[in-house]
Amino acid sequence: MQYEVVLPAAGSGKRMGAGQNKLFLQLNEKPILIHTLEVFQSDEDCTGIWLAVKPEEREYIQGLLERYHITKVKGLPNGGQERQHSVQSCMKAMQQVEIVLVHDAARPFITKPIISRLVGAAQEKGAAIAGVRAKDTMKKVRDGVIVETVDRESLWMIQTPQAFRFKLLQQAENHAEEQGFLGTDEAMLVERLGHQVHIVESTYENVKMTTKEDLIFGEAILRQRNN
Ligand code: C5P
Hints:
There is one protein chain. The two termini are 31 Å apart. It is globular and about 50 Å long. The mean pLDDT is 97. It has one domain: Spore Coat Polysaccharide Biosynthesis Protein SpsA, Chain A, CATH 3.90.550. It has a seven-stranded mixed β-sheet, with helices on both faces. It has a two-stranded antiparallel ribbon with strand order 2-3. It is built from seven helices and eleven strands. By secondary structure, it is an alpha/beta fold. The site of cytidine-5'-monophosphate (C5P) has 17 residues, from helix 3. It comes from Ureibacillus aquaedulcis. It catalyses: 2-C-methyl-D-erythritol 4-phosphate + CTP + H(+) = 4-CDP-2-C-methyl-D-erythritol + diphosphate.
């Protein structure tokens, strides 16, 4: 089943504290952004990649695409203030397709089997997102004090990719825009329409490169994969 993917890549990476877009940092001598792009470049079901970028980084990214032979990128629209705006900017630039995936450019370890399961589930049910079960005991805290221990059995940590029928995500984004609602993922926007969103169990390897420690995990994952 074919799909196109939206990769928001226009963040500032403040929590990484690298003084530059964290996606340009190297893992095993290759930029994080390229690791992520290569997964989709080599997936024959992926028919197009849309990359939301900062205007001042567009030229540099275009140079990387050439250097690493990433040929599936169909457009590099301007990203926005928040991640949701960056995704929306790509959706507005795209032609309608049946299935669209949204994937953080900062998650380079996503694998083809998980992508395929998400695309299949989105085709059948409309919306499906990757997640893993919470490992730790989870508590709600207010002003430094526990207010509730939450039942862990029902808690999942949500990742990307998030896969949707294109029209459903478009409708959800328009609805959120009208209402001035800002979510931390696309599933929230679809949930607000009252549409069910399904979970596809992913792996703990699919980490987002967010802080410095994540780079150490990242190097370790690559080492193990290359063995
Ligand atoms: O900051 P965080 O790691 O949660 O961002 C997730 C992804 O969204 C990253 O790939 C980042 O580049 C992207 N992003 C974006 N536009 C923003 C903020 C984040 O494209 N305004």
